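Annual report, structural modelling task.

Input specification for the uridine-5'-diphosphate complex:
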Amino acid sequence: MKRVLLKLSGEALAGDKKTGFDEATCMGVARQVKQLVDDGIQVAVVTGGGNFWRGRTSETIDRVKADQIGMLATVMNCIYVSDIFRYAGMKTEVFTPFVCGAFTALFSKDAALAALEEGKVIFFAGGTGHPYFSTDTGAVLRAIEIEADAMLLAKAIDGIYDSDPKVNPSAKKYDEISIQEIIDKKLMAVDLTASIMCLENKMPMLVFGLNEENSIVETMTGTFSGTKVTV
Ligand code: UDP
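The model returned the following structure:
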């Protein structure tokens, strides 16, 4: 794999704190991504926003407005994580699908690929720019657009299970599963829109736990212990 898109869930960024950022977790991500970049791999990053806000959980305000707040939460996450990456010695650029003043650059495929060629780690903040979508869907969309070889899905949980392991202690983790099976079994490891886009555009995924030691690097070097999603 030469070019990958790494999706970090917001919840995973918060570590044990559940909200906000856990600096040690983010530094751990930066150290691992630097290793990939030093090995010549092009890395694009999408962060979720669940450590700040999720549009669908608000019962009071309008869904469109709630989702706009969610998208802005992902912008804050990307600004934070990209600066941690800079601290760790990488060059970075944050793209958004809407104008954020001088904080970010406006996304285009050409600009994103040019930044990757310059050796930058690029961040896609703000999801798709539209409500009623998730950052998983935004991540798959961008992975397809930049012609990534695969999507690496770093989650607070270490793979895809046949049921929720927090609820069912005998839940079984899959080593490998097809995206069609995820859709048929309604496993919700990624949301349905994202799953269908992966299926239609043949984008494979590797799902693993962000909190597992060295999990991002291991995903790329073959000693992977998460779930491989085939297309
Ligand atoms: N969101 C949106 N459109 C997008 C991507 C995200 O409206 O294209 C909003 C939505 O409200 C979502 C929130 O941003 O709940 C945070 O994203 P998500 O829940 O996917 O974050 P994660 O669960 O990965 O941390």
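The helical segments are 10-13, 23-38, 63-87, 109-117, 135-145, 179-184, 192-201, 215-221.
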